[in-house]
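> @MW can you paste both from yesterday?
MW: sure, first one:
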Amino acid sequence: MFFYYLMPVIFLLGIIGIALEDVIKVNKAATAVGMCILLWLIFLLNADHFFLINPPKHISEFLAMFPQLGEMPLHELAFEFLELKLVRGLGDVATTLFFVLGSMAIIDIVDSHGGFSVISQSIKARSLRKLLCVLCSITFLMSILLGNLATVIVMVSIARKLVPERTSRLVFSSMIVIASNAGGSCSPIGDVTTLLLWTGGNVSALHQVTTLLLPSVAMLAVPLALATFMLPREAAVAPLSSATSAQTEVSPKTRKAVLWVGLGSLAMVPVLQTLIQLPPFMGVLLGLVILWVITDRKYADSSDEAMQNLRVQKSLSRVDISTIFFFLGILMSVQALIVTGQLAIMANFLSDTFVDKNHIAIVLGVLSSFLDNVALVSATMGMYPLQEAGVFAADSSFWTLLAFCAVTGGSLLIIGSAAGVTVMGMEKIPFGYYLKRFSPLALFGFVAGVIVYMLFV
C-alpha cells in the first residue's frame, strides 16, 4: 500500500516543482518527464499488487477484451495489463503532441515570413489607452485561431515596438496575458487544456465557441476597462521598427499568402473534424504540408542562406522541443494515475464534497492559477469518464465551465499559465508587480465570466 499512496504524492511534488521552475532552477520539462518515468517505474515494479487493488471495472474490462489471458499467472497478466495501458496512453497523448508540434511550426513559418507585420502595420491607434484596447482585442481574436501561447509571443513583440517606455509596456504585457487566456478559453485550439477536452470528446467545437464567447468577452472587458486608467491620457506611440533582412526580401504577396494559409489551416481544423471527422492533429499537419510545398517550391532554387531559413525544415529546428517533452511528461503521468485507480479515489472525494459539480470546475479554475492547468484538466478527465447523459455527458455544463475556468483561472497569477510564464520571461515582469496590480483585475474578470456563464446557460 505504501507505493500505491506514494504515487499521488510524487505527482503533487512534481506539479509544485513545475510551478517553482525559476526557484529550483530545473526546467519544467525535465521535472515532468522525470515524474512520468518515476510513476510508471513504481507501477512496473509493483504491477502484481496494483493489479489486485485496482477498481474492479479496470480488471473486468481488460479481461473482457482479452479473455484468453484469464488463465495466465497473476504477474504475467499484470504486465500484459500494464503494457496495454502504456501503449494506449501513449497513443492518445501522441495526438496532442503532434497537434502542438504542427501548430508551433505553422506559427514560426508565418512569423519568419513577416506575416504578422500585416496585422501590426494596420494598427493606427495613437493614444496609449486606445492602443491597449486595440492590442487586447487583436490578442483575444488571435488566441481563438492561434492559441494563447503563440499569440502572446507575437503580441508582446508588437507591443515592444509600439510602447518603448517600460512602465506602460508592463501594463500592456500583463493585459495581453489576460486577453490571450480569455480568447483561448472559448476556442477548441485556444489552449492545450481546451484541446484535450475537444479531442477527448468532452466539449464540441461549435458548442464551446457559442457557449463561452460571452463569458470570455466579460473576462477581458472588466480588467481592460480598469487597466486603461493605469495609462496616461497623452503619450506618443512609437512607429514599428523595420523587418529583418530575410523578411524584407519576401514579397508582400508571399507574406500575405503565407499568413492566410497559416491562419486558414488552423481555423479549418475544427471545421474538418466536424464535417469529415478528420483528427485535429491531421488537420494541423495538412496545413503544415501545404506550407511545406509552398515554401519548398518558392525557395528551392535560391542560394541565399537567409531565404533557405524560411523553409519548413528550418522552422522545425526552431520549434521549442522542451515544450513537447513537458506535455509528454504531464499527460503520461496522469495516465499512470488513471490506470492505477488513483484518480477514481479523488473523483469520489470531490463528488462527496461538492453537491453542485459546477463548483468543482470553479475550484479547479482557481487552482490552475498556481498549478499546471494541463495536469488538472487531464486528471479531471481521468476522474470523471464521459457519460451518455447526465452531469458528465459531452457538452454538459461541467465540461464547458471547466474549459473556461481552467484557462482563465491561469490569469489570476502570472505563473498560472504557459502564456503568463512566457510573457514573464520576455518582459521580466516581477511576480509581485502582477500580483498587486493585475491579479485583482483578473479575479474580477473571472467572477464576471462565471456569472455571465451562469446567467446564459
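MW: second:
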Amino acid sequence: MVSALKTWLPNLARPDGVERLPGGPLRLAQLDTVFDRARWHGVLPAALANIRQAAGRFALHRVVADCAAEEDLDGPVLAWKPHLVRQTGFTLLLRARLGEIAAVLNARGIPHVVLKGPEFADRLYANSALRLFTDLDLMVPLSAADDVAETLTSVGYALNEPHGRRYAVGYGEQTWCHPDRPVEKVEVHWNLVNSPTLRRGVSVRFENLQLDGPSLHGRPTASSLLLIAAVHGATSHAFNRLQLLCDLRQAALGVAGGLDEDWLTETAARTGAALSLAAGLDLCARVFGEPLCRPLLSRLGRIIGRRYARFLLSPAMVVDPPPLTKLRRQAFRQLLKRR
C-alpha cells in the first residue's frame, strides 16, 4: 500500500492527466485509501477524474489489477462523489463571499490582491474545479491593514484572536471569521511569510509583487503567481501536500502566461525567496518527472543551500504522513532562515 501511494498519488494528482503508468497496478481494495490521501493532499478532483482517464487510455488491468471492466471503478469513485460535491459547494460559497468583500474594498479604494485559492484555480488550471480551496486569502500593503480590518468588520466578519502563539506580535497575517458562519475564514496578509523568525530569511510584501495593472485593480502576473506558490509552499508548509506542488508546476509551465525571468530572479534574490523557488522547482521535477522545471531552475543560477534542501525534501516525504517527516521539515525551515 505504501509503495502504491508513493507511485500512484503524484500521477493521479496531475491536472493534465496521467501520461504514463508509474509501475505496478493498484487493486480495487486500495482505491479508498488512495482517494482518502488524495483528499488530504487537496487533489481529490484530479484523482477521481484521472483514474477513469487512465483506465480508458491504458489497458485496464495495468491500472487496477482486479478490475474486469471499467464499470467496476464506479463503486470506489462514486463513494467519494458526495465528499467532492460538498467541497465544490463550499468553494463556490467562498467565491460568492469574495465577490462581496472585493466589491466593498474596490468601492473604498483599498489596494489588495487575491492570493492562492480562486486566483490559482482560475489562472493555473484549465478546469478550475480541479483546484478547490477552504478559505480566502487577501494580500494588502501593511499601510492598508486597518482599512481592510474596518471593511471586514462592516460586512460582518470578526477578528479571530490566535492562541498559543510563540510571539506576542510580529506576524504577517490576520484571520477573520464570520460569527454566523465560522467555517468561512478570510486571511489577510501583509507578508507572504507569517512567521516573524522565518522572515529573517524570506520576506515578500505586497510591494514586492509584480502586478499587471494598478494596485487597486491589478492582478499578480504569471511570474508573481510562481513566486507566491513557491514562497507559500516552502515557508508555510515545507511542500507537504501535492496541491502545493501542482500549483507550482502549473505556474512554472507558464499556464498563466509567460514568465519574466529577469524580474523573478532579481525579486527572488532581493526578498530571500530564491531557495524557496529552487527547492520547489527541484521537487516538482522529481515528484512529477517534469523536465520543463529544470531549465528554469538552472537559469536561476547558484543558490546557497540548494543541495541541502534537495536532501531534506525528497519525493517520498511529500507522500509520507507529516509526523514521519517532521524533523526534515523543521530542518528545511531553519535553512530558509539563512540569507
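> thanks! The chain has 15 helices and five strands.
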